[in-house]
Amino acid sequence: MDTATENQDFDRPTGLRLPRKIQTLPPPQPRSNGLAEMTDAATNARGAMGPPPVPTGSIKHKPSGLPEPEAKQRKTLAERAGEPATSKIAAPPSSRLVNGGVKSLAANGTRPFSGSASLSRVPSSKTSKHTTANSFGNSVGHGGRATSANSYGARSKSAYGHNRSKSHHQAARPASAFSQHEEDGEPERKGVQPLLISTNPQGLETLRVSKNSARAQNNVSSNRMFSLNVPPKEGSQLSARRAISSPSLFPTTPTPEGSADFDADDVFESFGALTLNAPNAQGRASQIRRGTSSGKIADISFKSKASSSLIPRATPTRQMAPPPSPVPRTPTRPSTPQVFPPFLNRFTNDRCPAFDDSRVASLEAQFETFKEQIKDDISQQNSLKDTIKLYESRNAELEATCAQYRTLMDEHKTELKDLKSLLSTTNMELESVRRSHSFEVDDLRRKYRNEVEDLEDRHRKDSERSRRDNEIQAGKARNEFEAQIERLLKVHSEELAEMEKRLRTELEEERSKRLRDTEEVQAEFASKLRNAGLEAATKEREAQLLQGDLTNVKAELDRERTLKTALQGQLTQATTHNLTLDASNKAMKEKINFLESDSQAQSSAFNELHRRMQEAIEAAELANEKLRQEETLRRKLHNQVQELKGNIRVMCRVRPTHESETEPAKIGFPDNDTDSKEVAIQGPEKTSAMGTNITQTHSYAFDRVFGPSSQNGEVFEEISQLVQSALDGYNVCIFCYGQTGSGKTFTMSSTDGMIPRATAQIYSEATRLEEKGWQYKMEGSFVEVYNETYNDLLGRSEDLDKKKVEVRHDPVKKQTTLENTVSVTLDGPHRVEEILERASKNRSVAATKANMRSSRSHSVFILKLVGENSITGEKSEGTLNLVDLAGSERLEHSKAEGARLKETQNINKSLSCLGDVINALGSAKEGSHIPYRNSKLTYLLQYSLGGNSKTLMFVMVSPLQAHLQETITSLKFATKVHNTHIGTAKRQTKA
Ligand SMILES: Nc1ncnc2c1ncn2[C@@H]1O[C@H](COP(=O)(O)OP(=O)(O)OP(=O)(O)O)[C@@H](O)[C@H]1O
């Protein structure tokens, strides 16, 4: 097959100027459509699979005008890499390039080029120089390469469509090169003769084939060399088909090296149908090994693979070309036309590459898969089409239905229009009917109104007539009635005048009678006042006498106290002495023990010491006895003092006004600067007999008067001696008397009141007396007298009005005992707080009109003090009664009713009984009757009032003007008590 036949399958662009030789060939046949499609399909398939495995490369021609220094440098590098300066793969003389003659190639693995392959022509006389070009054909020249590129660059560009003149191209090319091509019978191609050997972008190796060696075979004298960059691995199995790639990978213009008398066609001449055969290369092994890393000789051959693929491939005839004859190549070219691989297409000068069968196979397989997929897709498409058809038919049906509905809707619209017009007509008719009706109604109304007016006129006239008749009749009756009333009034006024006259007379009589009475009372009062004055003077004298006595007693007491102190000092001394003696006794005993054994003197000394000790003990006993006597004496004297003070004492306390209380009474304290004993109260305004307003100031004297600023501590100081008397074995009774709200409970039971303070004092005194041999047992009980019944305030609150408390008296022992009551042993002062708390809970408190917090019962705190002196054998039994009396206000004032009235009556009764008892005690002779039994309170306190006891009454005074009358009453009562002289108290002792 000649060249023209080879190229007939490929189109060329019209107007493209072909190389000289090709122009002579018959024009190429247009490519059939089927083939074009197939080619495209194959290209696409390859594109889809990614870059082909065949490495890409480019042939680079060393420019001849390389500067000398660079050429030298390259030479040095090549030598270092183990290459001869002119590395050649020389074909053996027997090897023929022409007609598929075997040409051995040795892979050179010393210089991998990344991403490119180059085919260089190195002048044998010069050092090899590599020029790199990228795979897209942009030539990157080094140094002087640019100068020589002028000759071949024009070719390169024309390969990509630039119109370059042949003359320019030819002018750039050395004439020898053209002549050589012509000699070889190669078809001359226009533009660049790109010669590309595809390589793997990575790890390239340079295969160099000496043009000279190839030429030598054909007796062509040439010192040029091809340089092929291929991957090391691929290089070892290099085959010719790898050295040719697709057109897109033919970007580099082959640049001539050396004399530039060589072009790409020369390479094709040498390699195009080249089959490298290992056996044939054996003879040149030594030469090849020099330029390769592996030393293997690649078998470069074009192999055809029968395939159903439509991808163009090398023509079998060419691939199956007979091996070249071993006849050495003569310098003259053979007459037989040389077989070249066909061009890839008409746009390129690239030869059709030999195809990789395995790749083709894989492509085929993929193609098959692809076909299968397409088949599947087609079947799917068909089914989808069916579905679409189905939907289309359904759509048509729906559209038909829609059209039906539209028609129906149009009909309905028409009907609706008709109905609307009918409705408007009916409405108009209705409106006209309504109007005619309203006219009729108006007529009827007018008619009715006229009738009503007529009727009203008629009625008015009738009523006018009847009213006039009535008025005439009423006038007559009224006149009669008035006359009758006048008569009656006359009679009544007469009666009234008579009655007034009579009453006036009576009133006059009454007034004169009252005046007489008043005068009498005033006279009596004046005489009483005189008597009282006299009495007061007597009392004062008595008091002065008593004061003198008291001073004497006090002096005596002071003396006794001094004596007592001295005795106590002696006692202490004696005790110390005693202790010293004890110590010395011990020492002596030891000494005796020591001395007893052998010394009579020691014995006598011991006796002496013993005697002295006995004496000391006796002295101590004496001192103790004296102390006890002193204590007894103290008690006696203390009692005498109390007796001198009076067995019944009265003290007055005026409470302060609260912030809410605005109208205070006029209360004065004349002797406030000394021991306050007097209180003066301005009485209410009175009209005298002469008709003038007078106010009297009432003065009251008591054992002690406490003003509003006084504190509970101050008050207690005055009564502490009485508490001591209770501890000494006397019955003591302390009352708080006064109207509701005057401060009784505050004085008696508040946290620092008399009860807690008395208990605390008793407890501490009892503790103190313990060292003098006294042991005290203290028992407290708290009872209430309410409505003349006893209640236990320390019992359970639910038993308050149910449990009957009995009071028993022992007339022999003069002792009172309570039954069914809880008594608490006072083993510490803290216990009294519990007692008070429990009692206040249980105590009946109810509101009255006089005071919302009025206490309506008498509460009695009874503290029994039983003492025993273990040394003297003395025993004492005293009782301290602390009594918070119920409010003393008068019945009229409290405005009590019902149950409250009964309570108040009972309270008043018991208080008046108390007054009676005190009065009887003061006035009666010994043994006469004392009305204790008249009330529950006096019965309970029987042995605490009277001769055997000491009594203290606090009269509590409210500072308010509103309570003035009550205050005066209370003070009068207290004065009465204060004036009572009760017989000498007797101590309850048991010898
Ligand atoms: N000396 C005082 N100092 C301060 N406040 C006092 C004094 N005396 C009484 N009060 C207060 O006056 C008010 C009435 O006192 P209290 O309840 O003691 O009167 P009362 O005579 O005991 O009344 P009742 O008979 O109703 O028990 C209380 O709020 C009390 O705190």
Word description of this protein:
The chain is an alpha/beta fold and 991 residues long. Among the domains are: 53-341, no CATH class; 370-403; 646-656 and 712-982, Kinesin motor domain (Kinesin), CATH 3.40.850. Helix content is 50%, strand content 12%. The protein is built from 23 helices and 19 strands. Strands 5, 9, 10, 11, 12, 15, 16, 17, 18 and 19 form a 10-stranded mixed sheet that branches. Helix 5 (145-159) runs antiparallel to helix 6, helix 14 (357-596) crosses helix 15 (600-645) and helix 16 (712-727) packs across helix 18. The longest helix is centred in the middle third of the chain and has 240 residues, at 357-596. The chain is flat, with a radius of gyration of 79 Å. The protein starts with a helix and ends with a strand. It binds adenosine-5'-triphosphate (ATP). Residues 655-656, 738, 740-746, 851, 853-855, 887, 956 line the site of adenosine-5'-triphosphate (ATP). Residues 647-980 form the Kinesin motor domain. This is Kinesin-like protein. Residues 111-138 have a biased composition (Polar residues). InterPro entries: Kinesin-like_fam, Kinesin_motor_CS, Kinesin_motor_dom, Kinesin_motor_dom_sf, P-loop_NTPase. Residues 606-647 form a coiled coil.
Concise account of the structure shown:
The protein has 991 residues and is of the alpha/beta class.
Present the secondary structure layout.
Blueprint lengths: L2 H5 L12 H4 L9 H17 L10 E2 L6 H13 L39 E2 L23 H15 L6 H7 L2 H10 L20 E6 H7 L7 E6 L1 H5 L27 H9 L5 H4 L3 H6 L25 H4 L37 H240 L3 H46 L2 E7 L12 E2 L9 E10 L5 E9 L2 E3 L5 H16 L3 E8 L5 H6 L4 H16 L4 E13 L2 E4 L13 E5 L4 E5 L4 E2 L5 H12 L15 E12 L5 E10 L6 H4 L3 H26 L12 H5 L8 E9 L6 H15 L10 E2 L1
This protein binds adenosine-5'-triphosphate.
